[in-house]
Amino acid sequence: MNSHSQTERLRTLTNALGYTFKDSALLKQAFRHSSYVNEHQTDPHLEDNERLEFLGDAVLDLAISHILMDLFEHAREGDLSKYRAHIVDEAGLNRIATRLGLGDYLLLGKGEELSKGREKTSILANTVEALLGALYLDAGFDRSLEIIRELFSHQIEEIYTDEPTNDFKSLLQEYTQQTYKTLPTYNLKEESGPPHDRRFRVALHINGELLAHAEGRSKKEAEQKAAKEAFYCLKAR
């Protein structure tokens, strides 16, 4: 890929990001793999993307931490760390790279090209971080935060729906203790269905006020669903 064609193709990417780089050299560097630079050592000004990757990793961690702190005001540090790890793991970064088609923009050495480097999860994940490092240097943190919030919106949304990584009963308890100086109460209202397919319906009250009711295949599942509904109900007030 020559310099002109790469510039043209990168325009598609900047449109997807909603941001035009002031320094296009930074954007190009984000896609320059070390294997490519090693094969073009005659150009002493050619830098690979590893330093940008290092910076982008830190920028991403900070940005996602900001977002999670805003979303989960009463979550413990350990829970926030789990949420962040769920969002920025290698698989999550690979999803972003695939959605943006970052593999198409990579400059790779012949060996990496032959071994399908454009499809390697590790290379694609590192490229996302390099891109974010370049973005931070060109746009600053506030603009980078906005773009990261949009890019990772699907993973952030999963935090709400992935019950194993979210204990809404604990989140609700922490919130009501701090805000209302009380704890939620759960009442089993109905148990129905055959033994192999039981259904449990619970009601959730806070200070005597009915805030939510939910149904689940177990009492625990129903309580988690009710806690989730109540938590967002209270947060919206």
Overview of this structure, please?
A three-stranded antiparallel sheet has the order 1-2-3, covered by helices on one side. The protein is built from twelve helices and three strands; from the N terminus they run αααααααααααβββα. The model has no long low-confidence stretch (mean pLDDT 88). With 237 residues, the protein is mainly alpha-helical. Helix 6 (90-100) packs across helix 8 (121-139).
Essential attributes:
237 residues, mainly alpha, 3 strands, 61% helix
Largest sheet: 3 strands, antiparallel
**In DSSP terms, counting alpha (H) and pi (I) runs of 4 or more, how many helices?**
12
Strand tally: 3
Structural class: mainly alpha
- Strand fraction equals 5-15%
Strand order of the largest sheet: 1-2-3
Taking Cα atoms only, what radius of gyration do you get, to the nearest Å? 23 Å
Note the overall shape.
Answer: elongated
Fraction of helical residues: 55-70%
Secondary-structure topology with pairs:
Elements: H1 3-17, H2 24-29, H3 34-38, H4 50-71, H5 77-88, H6 90-100, H7 110-114, H8 121-139, H9 141-151, H10 153-161, H11 168-180, E1 185-192, E2 199-206, E3 209-216, H12 219-235
Antiparallel strand pairs: 1-2, 2-3
Helix pairs in contact: 4-5, 4-8, 4-9, 6-8, 8-9, 11-12
